Amino acid sequence: MTTEELKSLKVNKSVDARGTSCPGPLLAAKKAMGEIKSGDILEVLSADEGTKKDIPKWATKKKHEYLGTVEESGYFKIYVKKG
Amino acid sequence: MEENKKMCMVLFSGSIDKLTAAGVILSGAVADDMDVDIYVLLQGARAFRKDIADDPKKLNMAENVELKEEFLKSLENLKVKTWLEFFREAKSLANVKVHICGLAGKVWGADKVSDFVDITDDIVGIGECITAAQESDVHLFI
C-alpha cells in the first residue's frame, strides 16, 4: 500500500507505544490484537527502531496481514490487518 | 487447533542484567504464543526469594559490574520494565510456569513455594527440567 493509502485507512484500534522500548511495542500489539476482530485494522505508534522489523515479521507469522509503515517525525505508524 | 510451541528456559543466573535479558526474551516468546517453562537453578533461586526479587540493591551484575547504576538508570530512562515486571506480564498473557529447583532453594535458605516471589508455581527436581528440555522446541540456558 502507498503512504497515502495507509494514511486514509479506517483504523479500528490504535495503540500508542511510543513511551516504551522493545519488547513494549510488540507486546502492546499482541494485547491489542486480542481486543479486535478478524479483518479489523490495528495501528501501532512506536519510536523504537527495532519494532519496524519486529512487528511486520510477527504479524506475518501470526497470519495477520502487514499493510505497511508510515514515517512521522520522530516515530512511525505500523498498520496490521487481523487475520 | 495448532499446538503452541514450547520453550524451556533454564535460568541459572541471578544477576540483574541477565534476568532483564531473560525477561525480554520471555516477552518475545509470549508475543509468539509460546508456552514457557522456566527452571530456576542455583544463582537464579536467590533472585526469586521474595525478600530479594524486587530489590535491585540486592542483585548484582554478571558483566560490567562497576556500571550497575548506569545500567539501571538507563533502563529507567528508557522506561524498560524491571525483570520481575517482565515475568509478571508474561505470566498474565500466556502459559508461563516458574519452577524452582529444590536444591537451589535450600542453598539460599528457602524450601517452600511461599519463600519465593508470587510468580513461582512450584518446587521441582532436575528430572522435570530435563524432561521439559527434551520436549521443548526451544531450549535456552541463561
Written description of the protein model:
The complex is a heterodimer of chains A (83) and B (142). Chain A has 3 helices and 4 strands. The longest helix of chain A is centred in the C-terminal third of the chain and has 11 residues. Chain A is globular. Chain A is of the alpha+beta class and 83 residues long. Chain A has a 4-stranded mixed beta sheet with strand order 1-2-4-3. Chain A has one domain: TusA-like domain (Translation Initiation Factor IF3), CATH 3.30.110. Chain B has a single domain, classed as DsrEFH-like (Hypothetical Protein Ychn, Chain: A, 3-Layer(aba) Sandwich). Chain B has 6 helices and 5 strands; from the N terminus they run βαβαααβαβαβ. The mean pLDDT of chain B is 95. Chains A and B meet through helix 2 of A and helix 1 of B.
The total of helices of chain B stands at 6
Q: What would you report as the Rg of chain B, rounded to the nearest angstrom? A: 15 Å
What are the low-pLDDT stretches of chain A, counting only 5+ consecutive residues below 50?
none
Element pattern of chain B in H and E: EHEHHHEHEHE
What is the residue-averaged pLDDT of chain A?
95
Q: In the CATH scheme, what's the topology name of chain A? A: Translation Initiation Factor IF3
Q: How many individual β-strands of chain A?
A: 4
Q: How many independent structural domains of chain B?
A: 1
CATH first level of chain B: which class? Alpha Beta
In what order do the strands lie side by side in the largest sheet of chain B? 4-3-2-1-5
Name the shape of chain B in a single word.
Answer: globular
Q: Any idea what the CATH architecture of chain B is? A: 3-Layer(aba) Sandwich
Largest interface: A-B, 14 and 13 residues
Text of the CATH class of chain A: Alpha Beta
**What is the number of E strands of chain B?**
5
Structural class of chain A: alpha+beta
Q: What is the first-to-last residue Cα distance of chain A?
A: 17 Å
